[in-house]
Design goal:
The complex is a heterodimer of chains A (109) and B (114).
Chain A: E1 3-5, E2 9-13, E3 18-25, E4 32-37, E5 44-49, E6 53-57, E7 60-65, E8 70-75, E9 84-91, E10 97-99, E11 103-108
Parallel strand pairs in A: 2-11
Antiparallel strand pairs in A: 1-3, 3-8, 4-5, 4-9, 6-7, 7-8, 9-10, 9-11
Chain B: E1 3-7, E2 10-13, E3 19-26, E4 32-38, E5 44-52, E6 55-58, E7 64-70, E8 73-78, E9 87-94, E10 104-105, E11 109-113
Parallel strand pairs in B: 2-11
Antiparallel strand pairs in B: 1-3, 3-8, 4-5, 4-9, 5-6, 7-8, 9-10, 9-11
The chains are: A mainly beta (109), B mainly beta (114).
Amino acid sequence: GQNIDQPTEMTATEGAIVQINCTYQTSGFNGLFWYQQHAGEAPTFLSYNVLDGLEEKGRFSSFLSRSKGYSYLLLKELQMKDSASYLCAVMNSNYQLIWGAGTKLIIKP
Amino acid sequence: SQTIHQWPATLVQPVGSPLSLECTVEGTSNPNLYWYRQAAGRGLQLLFYSVGIGQISSEVPQNLSASRPQDRQFILSSKKLLLSDSGFYLCATAPLTGDNSPLHFGNGTRLTVT
Protein backbone atom coordinates (compact mmCIF):
# COMPACT_ATOMS: atom_id res chain seq x y z
CA GLY A 1 0.00 0.00 0.00
CA GLN A 2 0.87 3.65 -0.03
CA ASN A 3 1.40 5.58 3.15
CA ILE A 4 2.81 8.75 4.59
CA ASP A 5 4.11 8.88 8.15
CA GLN A 6 4.62 12.00 10.20
CA PRO A 7 4.57 12.60 13.96
CA THR A 8 1.16 13.34 15.40
CA GLU A 9 2.22 16.25 17.57
CA MET A 10 5.29 18.31 18.37
CA THR A 11 5.96 21.10 20.85
CA ALA A 12 8.54 23.86 20.45
CA THR A 13 9.42 27.19 22.01
CA GLU A 14 8.93 30.60 20.45
CA GLY A 15 12.12 31.74 18.74
CA ALA A 16 13.50 28.20 18.42
CA ILE A 17 13.88 25.86 15.43
CA VAL A 18 11.77 22.78 14.79
CA GLN A 19 12.07 20.00 12.22
CA ILE A 20 8.99 18.03 11.17
CA ASN A 21 9.78 14.74 9.48
CA CYS A 22 7.81 12.89 6.83
CA THR A 23 8.55 9.43 5.44
CA TYR A 24 6.67 7.97 2.52
CA GLN A 25 6.08 4.82 0.53
CA THR A 26 4.21 5.45 -2.70
CA SER A 27 3.74 4.02 -6.16
CA GLY A 28 6.24 6.23 -7.91
CA PHE A 29 7.07 9.81 -7.10
CA ASN A 30 6.21 13.10 -8.77
CA GLY A 31 6.91 15.50 -5.95
CA LEU A 32 6.29 16.18 -2.28
CA PHE A 33 4.23 19.04 -0.88
CA TRP A 34 4.02 20.65 2.53
CA TYR A 35 0.89 22.49 3.59
CA GLN A 36 0.08 24.50 6.70
CA GLN A 37 -3.36 24.23 8.24
CA HIS A 38 -4.50 26.43 11.11
CA ALA A 39 -7.25 25.03 13.30
CA GLY A 40 -10.62 25.24 11.59
CA GLU A 41 -9.15 26.55 8.36
CA ALA A 42 -8.23 25.12 4.98
CA PRO A 43 -4.67 24.00 4.18
CA THR A 44 -2.40 26.50 2.47
CA PHE A 45 0.56 25.57 0.29
CA LEU A 46 4.02 26.01 1.80
CA SER A 47 6.56 24.20 -0.37
CA TYR A 48 7.21 21.69 -3.13
CA ASN A 49 10.21 19.40 -3.61
CA VAL A 50 10.80 17.12 -6.57
CA LEU A 51 14.61 16.96 -6.60
CA ASP A 52 16.86 15.98 -3.72
CA GLY A 53 18.07 18.79 -1.56
CA LEU A 54 16.95 21.78 0.39
CA GLU A 55 14.48 24.43 -0.73
CA GLU A 56 14.48 27.60 1.35
CA LYS A 57 11.66 30.10 1.63
CA GLY A 58 12.26 32.67 4.31
CA ARG A 59 11.90 31.08 7.75
CA PHE A 60 10.69 27.80 6.22
CA SER A 61 12.85 25.22 4.45
CA SER A 62 11.98 21.80 3.06
CA PHE A 63 14.36 18.96 2.37
CA LEU A 64 13.91 15.86 0.24
CA SER A 65 15.80 12.57 -0.12
CA ARG A 66 14.09 10.42 -2.74
CA SER A 67 16.36 7.43 -2.14
CA LYS A 68 15.34 7.39 1.53
CA GLY A 69 11.69 8.29 0.98
CA TYR A 70 12.16 11.11 3.44
CA SER A 71 11.45 14.78 3.77
CA TYR A 72 11.49 17.35 6.52
CA LEU A 73 10.09 20.81 7.02
CA LEU A 74 12.33 23.12 9.00
CA LEU A 75 10.83 26.15 10.71
CA LYS A 76 13.21 28.75 12.10
CA GLU A 77 12.65 31.67 14.48
CA LEU A 78 9.34 30.21 15.54
CA GLN A 79 6.46 32.57 16.11
CA MET A 80 3.21 31.94 17.95
CA LYS A 81 1.35 32.18 14.64
CA ASP A 82 3.25 29.08 13.44
CA SER A 83 1.05 26.99 15.75
CA ALA A 84 -0.80 24.85 13.22
CA SER A 85 -0.90 21.42 11.66
CA TYR A 86 1.63 20.69 8.93
CA LEU A 87 0.57 18.24 6.24
CA CYS A 88 2.93 16.25 4.07
CA ALA A 89 1.58 15.00 0.73
CA VAL A 90 3.26 12.99 -2.03
CA MET A 91 2.20 12.87 -5.66
CA ASN A 92 2.62 9.37 -7.03
CA SER A 93 3.26 8.23 -10.60
CA ASN A 94 -0.47 8.53 -11.41
CA TYR A 95 -0.46 12.15 -10.21
CA GLN A 96 -2.56 11.16 -7.22
CA LEU A 97 -1.88 12.98 -3.98
CA ILE A 98 -1.28 10.77 -0.95
CA TRP A 99 -1.73 12.67 2.30
CA GLY A 100 -0.23 12.24 5.72
CA ALA A 101 -2.45 12.77 8.78
CA GLY A 102 -0.56 15.92 9.68
CA THR A 103 1.67 17.05 12.53
CA LYS A 104 0.14 19.40 15.07
CA LEU A 105 2.79 21.92 16.11
CA ILE A 106 2.31 23.65 19.45
CA ILE A 107 4.42 26.74 20.10
CA LYS A 108 4.99 27.76 23.71
CA PRO A 109 6.13 31.22 24.79
CA SER B 1 -5.30 34.50 -9.26
CA GLN B 2 -7.97 31.92 -8.59
CA THR B 3 -10.57 32.17 -5.86
CA ILE B 4 -12.66 29.32 -4.52
CA HIS B 5 -16.04 30.03 -2.98
CA GLN B 6 -17.47 27.35 -0.76
CA TRP B 7 -20.65 27.47 1.30
CA PRO B 8 -22.01 27.16 3.83
CA ALA B 9 -19.15 27.47 6.31
CA THR B 10 -20.88 25.34 8.93
CA LEU B 11 -23.82 23.00 8.77
CA VAL B 12 -25.65 20.84 11.28
CA GLN B 13 -27.93 18.22 9.76
CA PRO B 14 -29.92 15.29 11.22
CA VAL B 15 -29.20 11.72 10.18
CA GLY B 16 -31.17 10.79 7.08
CA SER B 17 -31.47 14.34 5.77
CA PRO B 18 -30.17 15.39 2.33
CA LEU B 19 -27.02 17.40 1.70
CA SER B 20 -25.89 19.84 -0.94
CA LEU B 21 -22.56 21.66 -0.75
CA GLU B 22 -21.56 24.02 -3.51
CA CYS B 23 -18.17 25.16 -4.72
CA THR B 24 -17.49 27.75 -7.40
CA VAL B 25 -14.16 28.84 -8.78
CA GLU B 26 -13.11 32.21 -10.23
CA GLY B 27 -9.99 33.27 -12.07
CA THR B 28 -9.35 30.09 -14.01
CA SER B 29 -10.97 28.09 -16.77
CA ASN B 30 -11.34 24.32 -17.15
CA PRO B 31 -9.79 23.60 -13.76
CA ASN B 32 -9.50 20.19 -12.16
CA LEU B 33 -11.84 20.21 -9.17
CA TYR B 34 -11.71 18.06 -6.07
CA TRP B 35 -13.84 17.30 -3.01
CA TYR B 36 -11.91 16.22 0.07
CA ARG B 37 -13.12 15.25 3.53
CA GLN B 38 -11.06 15.61 6.67
CA ALA B 39 -12.21 13.79 9.78
CA ALA B 40 -10.88 14.90 13.16
CA GLY B 41 -7.23 13.86 13.54
CA ARG B 42 -7.17 12.22 10.14
CA GLY B 43 -5.55 13.00 6.81
CA LEU B 44 -7.35 14.41 3.82
CA GLN B 45 -9.50 11.84 2.04
CA LEU B 46 -10.20 12.42 -1.63
CA LEU B 47 -13.89 11.85 -2.35
CA PHE B 48 -14.36 13.00 -5.96
CA TYR B 49 -12.47 14.75 -8.67
CA SER B 50 -13.50 16.20 -12.00
CA VAL B 51 -11.46 17.13 -15.07
CA GLY B 52 -14.38 18.71 -16.93
CA ILE B 53 -18.13 19.34 -17.11
CA GLY B 54 -20.06 16.17 -16.39
CA GLN B 55 -16.88 14.17 -15.73
CA ILE B 56 -16.75 12.82 -12.20
CA SER B 57 -14.45 10.21 -10.73
CA SER B 58 -15.25 8.67 -7.38
CA GLU B 59 -12.43 7.57 -5.16
CA VAL B 60 -14.36 6.06 -2.28
CA PRO B 61 -17.70 4.22 -2.54
CA GLN B 62 -20.16 5.84 -0.15
CA ASN B 63 -23.52 7.53 0.03
CA LEU B 64 -22.18 10.77 -1.41
CA SER B 65 -22.30 11.92 -5.02
CA ALA B 66 -20.86 14.83 -6.97
CA SER B 67 -21.84 16.77 -10.04
CA ARG B 68 -20.22 19.38 -12.23
CA PRO B 69 -23.00 21.18 -14.11
CA GLN B 70 -20.78 24.07 -15.19
CA ASP B 71 -17.05 24.49 -15.79
CA ARG B 72 -16.44 26.29 -12.51
CA GLN B 73 -19.12 24.71 -10.34
CA PHE B 74 -18.75 21.53 -8.32
CA ILE B 75 -21.51 20.17 -6.08
CA LEU B 76 -21.36 17.51 -3.40
CA SER B 77 -24.62 15.82 -2.49
CA SER B 78 -26.17 13.11 -0.42
CA LYS B 79 -29.73 11.80 -0.33
CA LYS B 80 -29.47 10.53 3.25
CA LEU B 81 -26.71 11.57 5.62
CA LEU B 82 -25.04 9.15 8.01
CA LEU B 83 -23.34 9.99 11.30
CA SER B 84 -20.04 9.00 9.69
CA ASP B 85 -20.46 11.78 7.12
CA SER B 86 -19.51 14.35 9.74
CA GLY B 87 -16.28 16.13 8.92
CA PHE B 88 -14.62 19.09 7.29
CA TYR B 89 -15.36 19.19 3.56
CA LEU B 90 -12.92 20.98 1.32
CA CYS B 91 -13.22 21.91 -2.31
CA ALA B 92 -9.91 22.29 -4.12
CA THR B 93 -8.68 23.16 -7.57
CA ALA B 94 -5.55 22.55 -9.60
CA PRO B 95 -4.85 23.83 -13.09
CA LEU B 96 -3.94 20.73 -15.08
CA THR B 97 -4.05 16.95 -15.00
CA GLY B 98 -0.58 15.47 -14.94
CA ASP B 99 0.79 18.71 -13.57
CA ASN B 100 2.34 19.01 -10.16
CA SER B 101 0.97 22.41 -9.34
CA PRO B 102 -0.19 22.70 -5.74
CA LEU B 103 -3.83 22.43 -4.82
CA HIS B 104 -5.69 25.53 -3.74
CA PHE B 105 -8.44 24.98 -1.22
CA GLY B 106 -11.69 26.73 -0.45
CA ASN B 107 -12.44 27.71 3.14
CA GLY B 108 -14.28 24.48 3.80
CA THR B 109 -17.62 23.42 5.24
CA ARG B 110 -17.75 21.87 8.69
CA LEU B 111 -20.59 19.36 8.66
CA THR B 112 -21.98 17.85 11.84
CA VAL B 113 -24.52 15.07 11.45
CA THR B 114 -26.60 14.57 14.59
